[in-house]
Specification:
Blueprint (H helix, E strand, L loop, with lengths): L5 E14 L9 E14 L4 E10 L2 E10 L2 E6 L3 E6 L9 H10 L3 E9 L2 E8 L3 H13 L3 H10 E11 L5 E12 L2 E12 L11 H4 L2 E2 H8 L6
Parallel strand pairs: 6-12
Antiparallel strand pairs: 1-2, 1-11, 2-3, 3-4, 4-5, 5-6, 7-8, 8-9, 9-10, 10-11
Length: 230
């Protein structure tokens, strides 16, 4: 998998929270939201594009993102295009390479085979190191800090990871993550499914003109009176 230079992906992520008891200003009950989208990555050119839709309380919000080199561009509703410098190791954190590292560093059980898109795949159940999988989730999906990761670890109740590996190419075709956390009176269930395809095919990723004039994220943080971090 280390020789992969480009690929496309799609993602579905469901988060369900259940709160017991009364919390001032919040109340009780359940809240659910869904993130879905797709994208493509060109490792040779160090370019990435993704488009995500967040569905929460019946409202939908779309967000586009480009990463060109070590600069991240995000089209945020109400603010337009903003940019931010990424971490130096951002390209070592992209999906396929990071997930292959998780698999190499974890106990793996072969649980059978399954056809995906007319291709036979091995089904692997993985028992990853908690730090590794939370690092993947936090960097790619939740943008949480190392402090937040420690908090998630303490509240983690269960974690399941499954991968589908193409029998002919030995490339990952799908990854599923299911985790449950519990903190004080709130339980959260997170389910993530990602599909990977179009390996080593040409990826046309070009930054749009509007994004070239993006404002720096620090300006947005100053407007909101907060410190921004992506």
């Amino acid at each position: 998998m280390q020789n992969v230079k480009s690929y496309a992906f799609d993602i579905d992520m469901d988060i369900a929270t259940k709160r017991e008891g009364e919390v001032v200003g919040i109340g009780t009950g359940e809240m659910n939201f869904k993130i879905s989208g797709d994208g493509k990555i060109d490792m040779n050119q160090k370019k990435m594009y993704s488009k995500m839709t967040v569905d929460f309380l019946g409202m939908k919000m779309e967000m586009e993102q480009y990463v060109i080199g070590n600069t991240q561009y995000i089209n945020i509703p109400m603010f337009g295009w903003v940019k931010n410098e990424t971490a130096e190791d951002v390209w070592s954190l992209e999906y396929v390479h990071m997930e292959s590292e998780i698999m190499r560093n974890s106990p793996v059980i072969l649980s059978g085979t399954e056809m995906l898109n007319d291709r036979e795949c091995y089904i692997l159940d993985i028992n990853p190191r908690t730090d590794d999988i939370l690092r993947l989730i936090s960097k790619q999906y939740l943008s949480t800090s190392s402090t937040d990761i420690e908090g998630i670890k303490e509240s983690l109740k269960s974690l399941k990871v499954r991968e589908w590996i193409d029998k002919n190419t030995f490339l990952i075709s799908r990854m599923g993550i299911d985790m449950e956390t519990e903190y004080e009176n709130t339980t959260m269930n997170i389910s993530i499914t990602m599909n990977f395809y179009d390996y080593d095919k040409p990826m046309n990723i070009e930054l749009p003109e509007d994004a070239r004039n993006a404002r720096d994220m620090s300006e947005i943080g100053a407007m909101l009176g907060t410190e921004s971090r992506l």
